[in-house]
Amino acid sequence: MFRFDPTFLKLQKLIKMGEAGQSREGESITPLLGCGTGNKVAAPPQQFNSFPALNENASYINQATSYLGSYFSHSSVEYGGKDSCNSLSHPHELLRSTSGGDGDSPVSVCVSPGARCSTSSESPTSAANSPSAESTETPSQASNAIMTSNWLGLSGTSMFQGLIDRALRTVRGSADDIGWLQHDPEMPPAEDGTDRFNKILEDIGHGVHRLPNTVLYLLVPGLFSNHGPLYFVDTKTKFSKMGLACHIAKIHSESSVEKNAREIKEYIEELCWGSNKKVLLLGHSKGGIDAAAALSLYWPDLKDKVAGLVLAQSPYGGSPIATDILREGQLGGYVNMRKIMEIMIFKVIKGDIQALEDLTYERRKQFLKNHPLPQELATVSFLTEASISPAALATFSHVAQAELPLTKLPVVMPLGAAMAACAQLLQVRYGEKSDGLVTCCDAEVPGSVVVRPKRKLDHAWMVYSSLNEAPLEADAAQVCEALLTLLVQVQEEKQRQLD
Description:
Number of strands: 12
Shape: globular
Distance between the termini: 87 Å
Largest sheet: 7 strands, parallel
CATH topology of the largest domain: Rossmann fold
Structural class: alpha/beta
Number of domains: 2
Strand content: 5-15%
């Protein structure tokens, strides 16, 4: 007697109950699940007319097996032999059942459309009355029966192992990728510049400004900045009042990193043309990634034009949010989040899904391996932690201005609440501190001077003014000024080392 998979115990039990004492000698049993060809699954035949429950059970097994087979196609098993079931990539194609009055008959399955399967359906009594029954069974038929019976256990184990593996991948998410920059031995160490930054910020609060007017300042906005008219506007306005030449890069932030890198390179060359002044760059979020890519890809053309780079809250190592949305097997895969993002970015905001793909860990690892930042470039990275207190839920950001005939009305959004919710999610799932979108360890650029303020600041605070700013705290423009002042000091130290 051939062994069968316990998955079909319930079916066999129903068969015994339904046909006990009713099978006729020589009765031919048809497959429970239709023997289709190719990938098409036939509907189950109505074999048990007097027992509708058995037909429903067979239909359920057909649908469930087809569903699992479609999602775990990797569970296919191949056996050698020309006459055997060569390919088991379609586990739902054929199910054959034999039943006897004593209930000792097996359930066997053949899963290959072209495979030969044993169709013997005699009861033990009829088999005993036919001495030649055993002798007429060929070795090939016996081999088929053994292989198809064993397949039940193998495919069942493989399919559910695939289910377990996918669940584990989902649970792990980006846990193995977060902070990979700090674990890579080839990356240069970072230097802590928090104390120096705090001293500069304190001086700015007392009216001491040290930014030189002999350089140009270029602010590079991040993702979706084209749809926030006030992105970096407050900082640019205050820099201009201090007599500094400050510009906001007019790039399509929803484009790919390499496309924006080329546009930033052209923007820098246009600013430097005829002025004989170098440029200090400050990029926020994806803007820092775009600016860094421009310097990595076009350094020979820009090394005499750029004095340094600040990356503020930039996912230099990658973003768990982007990765979990786009990576196969992650949370986004269960609701087809990639398709939703493609529609939103391409159709709604006229962008490129590659802008989000370039922030995943796989893309960042590949890009940084091929295009690292120049070692002689002065670099400062700024990372923060968002507040998850109830007060953050009441924070509104001023993102636009509504022009009315007689007045202007501020357009506000609860970005602080959104950042607090995302920061709480990353804290609970990965145990990582973040500004709501970028984890602290992924914003730390190797080889840079790192600023880690104790003050709780979310990802949107740097570029959009809040309606409930603390009067005694520095605003975003003052923080940007302090970061650029620190960058000037780092650049001077680098220059002395090179000289």
